[in-house]
Design a protein that fits this description.
By secondary structure, the chain is an alpha+beta fold. Helix content is about 20%, strand content about 30%. Strands 6, 7, 8, 9, 11, 12, 14, 17, 21 and 22 form a ten-stranded antiparallel sheet that branches. It has an eight-stranded parallel β-barrel with strand order 23-24-25-28-29-30-31-32, surrounded by five helices. The longest helix is centred in the last third of the chain and has 23 residues, at about 620-640. Mean pLDDT is about 95; it is low at about 55-60. The structure holds alpha-D-galactopyranose.
Length: about 750
């Protein structure tokens, strides 16, 4: 609910368990008042009046530097981080010649002009494919327009509410109302003001093969940046955060503020704790090498920052983000199945050694063990017999598939599976027909070397003809063949980002990728997309508005993966997290792990298989089939349930998690031991979200009922631990409510 008091000019945004308030002050500035959990006994009529004038203790030397403006602009605020810095070429009225050296005017001041409450306004980069999401009921959006008193420039701050998840999507719209271009040097989507105090920041860092390493650290007084300066989201960090007052939150308790940027390009999260212990969080475009020209009459919308507050710890923050992404972001056209299918991907089985016959044999084995979607990875096109050639030439290779893809696709369909294909559309190898024809289509600076990464260059999506080429290649593929799924890869970060779009390439590249995905999804509503970038380098709420799942990491070692998946789960739902069972000896780490461990870890997300099926015995294939059958039984709970991290790796050396349907009727419990603490029993694990008055039957993966326990006992004492479980011990249990009352 959005409430406005015209007398005090106070705005109250009331959500299920949280509130957000701001007020226009006597000078017309929009000032932040409060954000946090609502008292449990609050009624809808309990609002912040704002009648007590704004005061702030412990000002730094200049009062305005500590003022919590809803949007901090470079002007009267100057030495803390700002959300907006604009260059105005001149005063709209006449200026004396003597004042010309002062130009451009680097000063923005924003004063309240008007506001409106509308339904479902759209942020920048909102998907244009027209496909529905799980929930489509309209959401209230507050738009507050602020005007610069001296320049033809205005900013509209937008707040779209999803009250059931205590989430506000924030974005800003900039408008040039004058007749000269303006340059924007820095623009964040939003600034968040948190209640004063010292905060712990939970975020993730990483690298290829080590994505989503979770860290928790106290924020210093001053600045802490979390960022990526690339044309994709990146491996080194991910654009989300959780924040709590130091020592005042835990997995299932305490106030936790969270945010996640819906954008897949160069981004930054800035955490600035000023001396009065006011924490400001700016989120949005990375100002590094940034420039945006606002032409006369034009408008720019920033991407959305999805933010909220949980009163029930980090777990509550994650569950809110998961539900929001599942229900409001992921496309869910009726043509797609409700749950993501079990996939087979041939990459680790064949690498570049593809043949029609070999893929057909794999497909037959995959279908026999229960796979539903068969995906051919890299190497099927152009001269792509190794990773030094072929990118850009998206034509089926006659050397690999002399009869085209159709015979393989027909066989895959005959076997009852869907067909999928790997592409990396934004890239080009110097050894390709595309590059030979259009060397100027690759990002570069004239007179400078073109540094290759994995032997490839990045296409300049600042050029409309490049975007058209990519779209037409993919459209031709999808039109010619019945392809249900594409794995869209992006395998290097940029160097020399020289483009016909100048510095705006940072924005245009992302907009171009989104636009191509949107057009394809609109034209092919049965198409599903997996976002991949050398593993987990393009995972964010922006790409998830046009993708169905992501490749979490190229590291498929099950024990390494438990840690990666735990970090991933802080912000992203299991429904999007593809996880493969691969070889006994892992190709990335060399570690040998038994099939049980590999399956129980992969079953925590969207199950995939990447093993060399041709090298497996009949007995092993039979085991694969049993696990896949079990997964199909539990996947609606894994992919659609609420996640509880019952035991985290950092505490227990083991990860115990639970997925539970909102009505508590079904649950999945999964434990994996990563470090063995000799001499210690595995502690029992009280579950959550069940019906304490009911009885539950617990089934193992062979569908054997191994226990029967009351909901009360499960949620108090928990599932008993075991003695003597070593590294790699793993188990998944399916819980079903069998009697409503005991
Ligand atoms: C990336 C992906 C892998 C695989 C290869 C193919 O590394 O993450 O899964 O598709 O590219 O070249």
């Amino acid at each position: 609910m959005i409430h406005y008091n015209p007398t005090t000019q106070t705005f109250n945004l009331i959500m299920r368990r949280s509130q957000y308030a701001m007020q226009v002050d006597e000078a017309g500035r929009l000032i932040h008042l409060a954000w946090g959990p609502r008292p449990v006994d609050a009624t809808p009529d309990d609002l912040i009046t704002g009648q007590t004038p704004f005061t702030q203790a412990n000002f730094s030397s200049h009062e305005q530097q500590g003022r919590p403006d809803e949007y901090l602009t470079y002007g009267d605020t100057s030495y803390h981080e700002v959300s907006l810095k604009v260059n105005f070429p001149a005063l709209p009225t006449a200026m004396s010649a003597a004042e010309a050296p002062h130009l451009p005017i680097r000063d923005v001041r924003l004063r309240y002009a008007h506001h409106e409450i509308v339904h479902d306004a759209q942020p920048g980069y909102a998907p244009q494919h027209g496909l529905p999401t799980g929930k489509t009921d309209p959401r209230e959006t507050l738009r507050i327009t602020l005007q610069d008193p001296a320049q033809p420039f205005r900013v509209t701050l937008c707040y779209r509410l999803t009250p059931e998840q205590d989430i506000i999507e924030r974005w800003a719209e900039l408008e040039n109302l004058g007749d000269a271009p303006l340059t924007v040097e820095q623009v964040y989507t939003a600034v968040l003001h948190l209640p004063n105090g010292y905060y712990d920041l939970t975020a993730v860092n990483g690298a290829w093969g080590q994505e989503f390493t979770a860290t928790r650290e106290p924020l210093p007084i001053g600045l802490r940046l979390v960022e990526h300066r690339t044309l994709h989201t990146g491996h080194r960090a991910n654009p989300f955060f959780l924040l709590n007052r130091c020592g005042q939150a835990w997995e299932e308790s305490g106030a936790v503020y969270f945010g996640q940027l819906a954008y897949s390009g160069s981004w930054r999260l800035t955490f600035e704790t000023v001396h009065s212990l006011n924490l400001r969080v700016h989120a949005g475009y990375n100002p590094f090498d940034f420039e945006l020209t606002l032409h006369p009459g034009s408008r720019h919308k920033t991407p959305a920052l999805i933010c909220g507050v949980s009163g029930d710890g980090w777990g509550g923050a994650s569950r809110r983000l998961h539900a929001f992404l599942r229900e409001r972001v992921l496309p869910q056209p009726p043509q797609l199945p409700a749950w993501r299918p079990v996939l087979y991907n041939s990459w680790e089985a064949t690498y570049f050694n593809l043949s029609e016959q070999g893929q057909m044999e794999l497909a037959r084995k995959a279908a026999a063990i229960g796979v539903e979607l068969f995906c051919v990875d890299d190497g099927w096109f152009g001269g792509r017999r190794h990773d030094r050639a072929g990118l850009g030439d998206w034509f089926v290779s006659q050397d690999v598939f002399p009869n085209g893809l159709q015979p393989l696709i027909d066989e895959v369909h005959r076997l009852g599976m869907q067909f999928g294909l790997w592409v990396e559309p934004e890239m080009v190898n110097a050894d390709s027909d595309l590059y030979r024809a259009h060397p100027d289509w690759a990002l570069h600076f004239p007179g400078r070397p073109r540094t290759e990464g994995r032997n490839q260059l990045i296409l300049d999506l600042g050029r409309p003809e490049v975007q058209a080429y990519i779209y037409h290649c993919l459209d031709d593929l999808l039109a010619a063949d019945d392809i249900a799924f594409i794995k869209w890869d992006y395998n290097r970060s940029q160097t020399e980002p020289g483009s016909v779009a100048g510095k705006e390439i940072w924005l245009r590249h992302v907009a171009g990728v989104y636009d191509i995905m949107d057009r394809l999804r609109q034209k092919y509503p049965r198409l599903a997309i997996q976002s991949c970038s050398g593993g987990g380098g393009r995972i964010d709420a922006g790409v998830l508005a046009r993708a169905d799942q992501v490749w979490t990491s190229d590291n498929t070692d099950a024990l390494a993966r438990v840690r990666i998946q735990e970090g991933f789960s802080l912000a992203y739902p299991a429904r999007t997290m593809e996880a493969w069972v691969t070889h006994t000896q892992n190709h990335q780490t060399g570690r040998i792990l038994d099939l049980n461990t590999r399956f129980h870890v992969a079953m925590r997300g969207v199950l995939g298989i990447g093993s060399s099926l041709n090298a497996l015995s009949e007995r092993e294939l039979q085991q694969y089939r049993q696990y896949i059958t079990f997964y199909k039984r539990i996947r609606h709970v894994v992919q659609g349930g609420d996640l509880y991290r019952l035991q985290r790796l950092e505490e227990f050396g083991a990860s115990a998690i639970q997925y539970v349907l909102p009505d508590g009727a079904e649950a999945v419990y999964s434990v994996v031991v990563v470090e063995h603490k000799i001499g210690q029993l595995r502690p029992s694990t009280p579950l959550r979200g069940l019906d304490s008055r009911a009885t539950y039957a617990l089934f193992d993966m062979h569908n054997r009922q191994v226990r029967r326990m009351s909901g009360y006992e499960l949620m108090t004492r928990g599932i008993p631990g075991h003695a003597g479980v070593g590294i790699g011990y793993a188990e998944t249990l399916y819980l079903q409510k069998v009697e409503s009352t005991i």
